[in-house]
Write a structure and sequence with these properties.
alpha/beta, Glutaredoxin, 5 helices, globular
């Protein structure tokens, strides 16, 4: 599967209508972004059950700001509309494979339960 260019117009729809979405925040002038691009593209061909989206931070400054992207490349993984991974810096192919596998294996009921506990604790404070 090819990567999808994510914009303010299609971002929410992409996240809402897909189980797992990897998002690469990048810019054309960024050397590490250029080095990560073929790794990201290769993974998008390998994992056809996952959506791979790219956010050009120069063109989509609102999205970058909304997710507080301070360094590029930054990789985020959304699963069931929840950010389960966020890390600046490029990943080698093996590390990206490992992160994708862990995202697939994650027990989302447990994640939601943990989020609910944290929100309840925050409301008590």
């Amino acid at each position: 599967m090819a990567t999808v260019a994510l914009t303010e117009e299609n971002f929410r729809d992409t996240i809402d209508n897909n189980g797992i979405v990897l998002v690469d925040f990048w810019a054309s002038w960024c050397g590490p972004c250029k080095m990560f691009e073929p790794i990201f593209e290769e993974a998008s061909d390998k994992y056809t059950d996952v959506v791979f989206g790219k956010v050009n931070t120069e063109e989509q400054q609102q999205l970058a700001a909304m997710f507080q992207v301070r360094s590029i490349p930054t990789l985020m993984i959304f699963r069931d509309q929840i950010v389960i991974f966020s890390q600046p810096g490029m990943l080698p192919a093996a590390a990206l494979d490992e992160v994708i596998q862990k995202a697939k294996e994650l027990d989302m009921d447990q994640v939601r339960e943990e989020i609910a506990k944290q929100q309840a604790a925050g409301n008590d404070a």
